[in-house]
Amino acid sequence: MENNYTVTIGNKAEGTIVESKSVVKLAERLREAMQKKGYKAAVLSEKTGIDRGSISHYLSGRYSPKSDRIYLMAKELGVSVAWLNGYDVADADRPDVEKPNQRKTVCHLTDHEIVILRKYAELDKQMKKIVDIALSIEEVE
To answer: Under CATH, which number does the domain 4-99 receive?
Structure first.
Protein backbone atom coordinates (compact mmCIF):
# COMPACT_ATOMS: atom_id res chain seq x y z
CA MET A 1 0.00 0.00 0.00
CA GLU A 2 1.21 3.48 -0.87
CA ASN A 3 0.65 6.56 1.29
CA ASN A 4 1.06 10.01 -0.27
CA TYR A 5 1.66 13.29 1.54
CA THR A 6 2.19 16.62 -0.24
CA VAL A 7 5.21 18.59 0.95
CA THR A 8 4.87 22.35 0.86
CA ILE A 9 7.75 24.72 1.52
CA GLY A 10 6.57 28.31 1.70
CA ASN A 11 3.73 28.49 -0.79
CA LYS A 12 5.27 26.13 -3.34
CA ALA A 13 4.71 22.37 -3.42
CA GLU A 14 8.16 20.76 -3.50
CA GLY A 15 7.19 17.14 -3.91
CA THR A 16 5.29 14.29 -2.38
CA ILE A 17 6.29 11.98 0.43
CA VAL A 18 5.47 8.52 -0.85
CA GLU A 19 5.99 5.36 1.08
CA SER A 20 6.63 2.83 -1.67
CA LYS A 21 9.29 0.85 -3.48
CA SER A 22 8.96 3.10 -6.55
CA VAL A 23 10.44 6.04 -4.62
CA VAL A 24 13.37 3.91 -3.55
CA LYS A 25 13.89 2.84 -7.17
CA LEU A 26 13.82 6.47 -8.34
CA ALA A 27 16.36 7.37 -5.64
CA GLU A 28 18.65 4.54 -6.76
CA ARG A 29 18.35 5.50 -10.42
CA LEU A 30 18.91 9.19 -9.67
CA ARG A 31 22.02 8.34 -7.67
CA GLU A 32 23.31 6.08 -10.47
CA ALA A 33 22.79 8.69 -13.19
CA MET A 34 24.40 11.41 -11.06
CA GLN A 35 27.43 9.22 -10.37
CA LYS A 36 27.82 8.48 -14.07
CA LYS A 37 27.88 12.22 -14.83
CA GLY A 38 30.05 12.97 -11.79
CA TYR A 39 27.36 15.21 -10.30
CA LYS A 40 26.77 16.01 -6.66
CA ALA A 41 23.39 17.33 -5.49
CA ALA A 42 24.72 20.91 -5.64
CA VAL A 43 25.73 20.54 -9.30
CA LEU A 44 22.40 19.01 -10.32
CA SER A 45 20.65 21.77 -8.39
CA GLU A 46 22.60 24.46 -10.23
CA LYS A 47 21.96 22.91 -13.64
CA THR A 48 18.23 22.25 -13.13
CA GLY A 49 17.20 25.07 -10.81
CA ILE A 50 15.83 22.54 -8.31
CA ASP A 51 16.63 23.30 -4.68
CA ARG A 52 19.66 21.30 -3.43
CA GLY A 53 17.76 20.22 -0.33
CA SER A 54 14.95 18.82 -2.48
CA ILE A 55 17.43 16.81 -4.54
CA SER A 56 18.93 15.43 -1.33
CA HIS A 57 15.45 14.36 -0.22
CA TYR A 58 14.86 12.66 -3.58
CA LEU A 59 18.19 10.85 -3.23
CA SER A 60 17.27 9.65 0.25
CA GLY A 61 13.99 8.24 -1.06
CA ARG A 62 12.01 10.30 1.43
CA TYR A 63 10.26 12.48 -1.16
CA SER A 64 9.00 11.74 -4.63
CA PRO A 65 9.59 14.65 -7.02
CA LYS A 66 6.78 16.07 -9.10
CA SER A 67 6.80 15.09 -12.79
CA ASP A 68 8.21 18.42 -14.02
CA ARG A 69 11.23 17.97 -11.73
CA ILE A 70 11.74 14.37 -12.83
CA TYR A 71 11.73 15.65 -16.41
CA LEU A 72 14.33 18.35 -15.66
CA MET A 73 16.63 15.90 -13.85
CA ALA A 74 16.28 13.22 -16.53
CA LYS A 75 17.10 15.71 -19.29
CA GLU A 76 20.15 17.05 -17.47
CA LEU A 77 21.41 13.56 -16.65
CA GLY A 78 20.86 12.24 -20.17
CA VAL A 79 18.39 9.51 -19.24
CA SER A 80 14.74 8.94 -20.02
CA VAL A 81 11.99 9.85 -17.60
CA ALA A 82 10.83 6.22 -17.73
CA TRP A 83 14.26 4.92 -16.75
CA LEU A 84 14.62 7.46 -13.94
CA ASN A 85 11.19 6.40 -12.63
CA GLY A 86 12.44 2.83 -12.30
CA TYR A 87 10.98 1.21 -15.40
CA ASP A 88 12.95 -1.31 -17.44
CA VAL A 89 13.84 0.40 -20.71
CA ALA A 90 16.09 -0.06 -23.73
CA ASP A 91 19.85 0.27 -23.23
CA ALA A 92 19.81 3.58 -25.09
CA ASP A 93 18.02 5.16 -22.12
CA ARG A 94 20.45 3.90 -19.50
CA PRO A 95 23.28 6.15 -18.24
CA ASP A 96 25.81 3.32 -18.13
CA VAL A 97 25.57 2.58 -21.87
CA GLU A 98 27.51 4.67 -24.39
CA LYS A 99 25.34 6.60 -26.82
CA PRO A 100 27.18 7.07 -30.12
CA ASN A 101 26.70 10.34 -31.98
CA GLN A 102 24.50 11.76 -29.24
CA ARG A 103 23.89 15.48 -29.55
CA LYS A 104 23.63 17.35 -26.30
CA THR A 105 21.26 20.25 -26.25
CA VAL A 106 21.38 22.44 -23.20
CA CYS A 107 18.15 24.29 -22.67
CA HIS A 108 16.87 25.41 -19.30
CA LEU A 109 13.14 26.00 -19.26
CA THR A 110 11.03 27.37 -16.48
CA ASP A 111 8.24 25.23 -15.07
CA HIS A 112 5.76 27.54 -16.83
CA GLU A 113 7.50 27.06 -20.20
CA ILE A 114 7.39 23.27 -19.75
CA VAL A 115 3.64 23.44 -19.06
CA ILE A 116 3.14 25.53 -22.22
CA LEU A 117 5.13 23.05 -24.32
CA ARG A 118 3.16 20.12 -22.96
CA LYS A 119 -0.14 21.85 -23.71
CA TYR A 120 1.06 22.70 -27.24
CA ALA A 121 2.02 19.06 -27.82
CA GLU A 122 -1.52 18.01 -26.91
CA LEU A 123 -3.13 20.29 -29.53
CA ASP A 124 -4.41 18.86 -32.79
CA LYS A 125 -2.71 19.87 -36.06
CA GLN A 126 -5.19 22.65 -36.87
CA MET A 127 -4.85 24.25 -33.43
CA LYS A 128 -1.05 24.04 -33.66
CA LYS A 129 -1.21 25.97 -36.96
CA ILE A 130 -3.32 28.66 -35.31
CA VAL A 131 -0.84 28.99 -32.44
CA ASP A 132 2.10 28.99 -34.88
CA ILE A 133 0.49 31.79 -36.89
CA ALA A 134 -0.26 33.77 -33.73
CA LEU A 135 3.37 33.39 -32.68
CA SER A 136 4.68 33.90 -36.24
CA ILE A 137 6.38 30.50 -36.29
CA GLU A 138 7.10 28.80 -39.60
CA GLU A 139 5.99 25.19 -39.89
CA VAL A 140 8.84 22.69 -39.55
CA GLU A 141 8.33 19.20 -40.93
So the answer is: 1.10.260.40
